[in-house]
Amino acid sequence: MSQSAPAVNAVNVEPLRMSRTSIATVCLAGTFEEKMRAAAEAGFDGIEVFEPDLVASPLSPEQVRDLAAELGLTLDLYQPFRDLEGVEESVFQDNLRRLEGKFQLMQRLGVDLILLCSNVGTATSWEDEVAVEQLRRAADLAARYQIRIAYEALAWGRFVNTYEHAWSLVEQADRPNLGVCLDSFHILSRRGDVSGFRAIPGEKVFFVQMADAPIMLMDVLSWSRHHRNFPGEGGFDLVTFMRELYATGYTGPISLEVFSDVYRQTESVRTAREAMRSLQWLDDAQAGDAPAHPTGWDFAEVRAAEPADLAEVLTQLGFADHGRHRTKDVHLFSAGHARVVTNDRTEAPLEHAGGSVIASVGLQVPDPRTTADHARALHYPQAWRANRADEMVLRGVQAPDGTEVFLAPTSAAAPQWVGEYGRNDAGRGAGAAASGDAGAGTDAAGVVAGDGLILGIDHVNLAQPWQWFEEGVLFYRSLFGLEAQVSNDVASPQGLVRSEVMRTPDGAVRVPLNLIPHGLDPGRRSASTRTVSGHIDHDELRLKAAYPQHVAFLASDAVEVARRSRARGLRMLPVPSNYYEDLAARFALDEAFLAELRENDVMYDRDEGGEFLHFYTRTVGTVFFEVVERRDGYEGYGAGSAPVRLAAQYDLDRQ
Within 13 Å of residue 465, how many CA atoms lie on the same side as its CB? Predict the structure, then answer.
């Protein structure tokens, strides 16, 4: 019996929100009991029981049922049951025997919904009529146990691989306890049209499973089994998926089913918390409740084993030295609207690694209090800055990799905290510039400093350990509304480096995230030590300092900055002659201009939008600086230069 879809109300109504949340135990590492406890601690309402987890558990079905009740969890779904329909009668009879055994088990567990996946292996020929009749008979058997069946089209199903086909079979079978399961991965990996959801009555959508994924060119089965991630961490349009889902009238749980090689190795409570954050982000996004974008950079703070070396590089770049903070072991340097704080406190892990880290960044936002409240709602750890009564209060939050992100009000003038820096060790007043720079200095508010060529911070590149990369993407998306650009793999002497840029729509804030090659991760440690406290430990600080990261400054004339910096004694990152020969072959550059680039170790790129000139300093520990010039709307980052830069840094490290 055909059922028509509910009419869509054309008037403005309050957007629907998630009524209940659930998570498949396959998403988490650990034993079945550890997974259940992690889900409960993260605040999930229920779980999907993944059959292999139950089979491997010493807990009886009755004990699982009791533990779920103790933890306040509902058991929402038992999954999966495979290869039921579209088979010969003798095979189907044996399938019914298997299915009835699962129904009996589910009664002991207290679960009344089973996931039935479309056949991928045993259906050798196909007739819809046969499949419909077999689904009907399976539903009739389930009804005797008061169990419902959610039929799901697997993206690699042999004959049924779209939700439209699955719904057609369910509709024809016409049983009240037979419905469909809509899975975002199976639908969106095949570029399915989710507007078709409206043809399905909400009461016939028995379950919904959500997963995101990076956009990849590979077979869909491998993509599904190894590369799913939580909503907001990939490239699927899950917001439209949810809006079309709610248009059906669906009011059931929203569950996560994520197969991930990363999350199967990370600590279960931390992963469960990340999973819950992803649903919070998705719920807000589909309801149109987006966070306010940052309006610009406030500062970047670098902590190094050798702070004096950092100070020397910055002054050679033309930064003014504002001296030491009046109560803290930090110094401030500025050029234009770019402000860099160098932290003089030497951490033992940095000394051991010979490295350095970008310890914190400051972002200007429309309302710091609102952003801080949103961070607390997402359960991100707070970052604290000790203050005296006469010092500016900066609210902060800790990113998954341990970077502290402080929130400052949007302002065209210098921030209030700049006035907390006094005279430097050399006796110069705040705002004094490197010697020999005509026109350097500050105005009364301390806004403009340096020689006027450096304008501000263009982007901050942060190294991400393998287990935190996707978490970092969700952090900047959920809290600041940054969107991910297409990821790029860059070859380095130490392995492929995956890079994904998070940025505001206007480009005011750009945060490239680089995945640390596994070979640089000592023992490929899990993130378990920071799960409960939320604070980075010494081993993780050492890991963070094991791979180069940098701050890039926007300049009006990159070649002139390079020329003046070299005259002050700056040691540039050397660029091989082969690069410039290749540059000459790729672009029809004026010979004099090419010679000027070569002389100053300045690199070049061009696209349909404009031109890009940039150069790098040598690393101080593992932090370095870049100066970039964007001409005529160029929006990239000189990706073609990245392998050359990585190889040059590797050669210098070996020396």
Answer: 24
| Segment 33-37 long-range contacts (CB within 8 Å, at least 24 positions apart) | 33/57, 33/59, 33/67, 34/268, 35/268, 36/64, 36/67, 36/68, 36/71, 36/73, 37/71, 37/268, 37/269
* Exposure b/e, 200-210, CB count within 10 A at least 16 = b: bbbebbbbbbb
DSSP states of 85-107: SSS-HHHHHHHHHHHHHHHHHHH
Contact 400/230 with Cβ under 8 angstroms?
A: no
Burial of residue 136, with CB atoms counted within 10 A of its CB: 0-12 exposed, 13-18 middle, 19 or more buried: middle
Tens-place pLDDT, residues 119-149: 999 988 899 999 999 999 999 999 999 999 9
Q: How far apart are CA 100 and CA 140, in angstroms?
A: 11
Rounded distance between C-alpha atoms, residue 545 and residue 569, angstroms: 26
Nearest in space to 577 (alpha carbons), one of 604, 605, 593, 599: 599
Distance CA 271, CA 29 (A): 8
For the entire predicted model, the pTM comes to 0.89
HSE toward the beta carbon, residue 305, CA cutoff 13 A: 18
In this structure, are residues 445 and 413 in contact, taking their beta carbons and an 8 Å threshold? yes
Q: What is the pLDDT of residue 518?
A: 66
Counting residues of the chain whose pLDDT is more than 70, the rounded percentage is 87
- At residue 52, what is the residue type? P
> Residue 594's CB: how many other CB atoms inside 10 A?
16
Residue with tokens 């790129």: 605
Q: Which residues contact 372 (CB under 8 A, 6 or more apart)?
A: 382, 395, 396, 397, 407
Q: What is the pLDDT of residues 585-608, one digit of tens each?
A: 999 899 999 999 999 999 999 999
Q: Where are the alpha helices (DSSP H) in 600-655?
A: 642-654
Give strand ranges (E) for 167-271.
178-183, 205-210, 254-256
* Residues 355 and 545 sit within 8 Å (Cβ to Cβ): yes
